[in-house]
Write a structure and sequence with these properties.
The protein is of the alpha/beta class. It is built from eight helices and six strands.
């Protein structure tokens, strides 16, 4: 029987920029907060569908460092939803074998949320079916900058060691596929280091509309390209040609 580590390494790492909650709500005459609430329901659907579609690690972009610039009421509502998710989803995550990690800064979060995150991470630490990573107050450039500051004290450095400094995890699989909903076509400071060779998939679907069939379509596109080009992550790194 294969070990859990082997099985996890064979499964994909998918990152999703969950975009379009506000526009989805506005088009329906609803408040932007209602759009974010609908987005949480989509998270539940996709977390359930992901392992069945060959995903071992799922990183969701929930709140960027730049999102602090949004209207105060909207930010407060997002933090309330995060608090609600942590309080109400842990039992389900444990039952379904999902390990939760939260990446990004915690020192600027409202009182009590950092402790709730730590509690949820401890409670789900034994999950083997899916590693769910939620990016909150996250900036990939800041993560790289902080890793560079730590690396300055080292006498030698490898890509693997630097990757651990960036991600905070040992042996995290690089991102295979990044999906962005809502029609926007940019990375917005998401997984810049670990997504260096990721396939990019953009869809017009708003995040609250996104479902398991949309995820399957994105993965099918990814696998077609992998078969065509032989898998970018498996290619040896070569020096860039001289000009």
């Amino acid at each position: 029987m294969q070990s859990d580590v082997t099985l996890a390494n064979e499964m994909l790492h998918v990152g999703i920029i969950m975009d379009g909650n506000g526009r989805w709500a506005t088009r329906r005459g609803l408040s932007r907060v209602r759009g974010h609430e609908a987005g949480v329901e989509t998270i539940r659907r996709i977390v359930e569908a992901a392992p069945k579609q060959g995903i071992g690690t799922l990183t969701l972009y929930a709140f960027s460092t730049d999102n602090w610039r949004r209207p105060r009421a909207e930010v407060a509502a997002l933090m309330t939803l995060l608090r609600f998710y942590l309080a109400n989803e842990v039992q389900s995550l444990v039952k379904n074998g999902v390990r939760l990690s939260v990446i990004g800064r915690r020192d600027r979060l409202p009182e009590g949320i950092a402790a709730a995150i730590a509690g949820a991470e401890r409670a789900t630490a034994q999950g083997k079916v899916l590693h769910l990573r939620i990016a909150v107050d996250y900036s990939a450039r800041d993560a790289i900058l902080n890793a560079a500051a730590k690396a300055a004290a080292l006498t030698s450095l490898t890509r693997e060691a630097f990757s651990q400094l960036v991600t905070g995890e040992v042996g995290l699989r690089d991102v295979d596929l990044i999906i962005r909903t809502s029609g926007e076509k940019r990375l917005s400071d998401f997984l810049l280091w670990e997504g260096a060779y990721a396939e990019l998939h953009f869809t017009e679907r708003m995040w609250p509309e996104f479902d398991s069939s949309d995820l399957a379509e994105a993965l099918a596109s990814f696998h077609r390209r992998e078969r065509r080009f032989g898998g970018l992550q498996s290619l040896p790194l070569e020096p860039a040609p001289s000009l």
